[in-house]
Amino acid sequence: MEVIAVARITVKHRHGQSFDIRVRGYALISDEPVTLGGDDEGPTPTELMVAGLAACAADEAVKRLATIGERFEPTEVGADFDWDSEGSRITSIRLEVTVPHVISTSARNEMLHAMQSCPARKMLAEPPSVEYELSVGGAHTVVGLGLDSSGSWPEEPPPDVDSQS
Question: What is the pTM for the complete model shown?
C-alpha cells in the first residue's frame, strides 16, 4: 500500500464553541447550536462530516456522468441523518441524488457504484487509525486512539437542532 501525505488541516478556537478551520487555504467555521452553548455561526463538526460524505458522493457522481457522456448539471445531493441520543452517534445517513435529466439504467448503476466508491464512504466502511497527540509547553505526548480507560467513547450531545426548520 502506498501512503501519500496530504495537506494539513488546522482547527483553531475562535470563541465559545466556535472554531476556524483551514483546509488548503480555504476557511470554514464550525460551531454548536445555541441550545448546546454555541452561537450557531456554522455547521457542527458532525454536520461537516455528513456534508463531506455528500460532497464526495456528488463529486464521484458528476465525474462518472461526465466520463460516460451524460449531462449532469445541476446534479444535487441532499443528506439526512439519524442521531442516537443514548449512543451519542449517527446511526444512519441517507443521500438523495437528483440528476436533472433522464439517464439510462446502466448510467444510473455506474453513477451509484461511483458514489459508493467515494473515499469518504470508504473511510466510514474501513475506519482509519486515529491517534491523539497532546502538546503542552512544547512537550508532545501520544494520548491514544480516542477511547477512555474503560473502552467507552466520551459523552457527546446531539447535533444541531436549532437551525432545522
Answer: 0.82
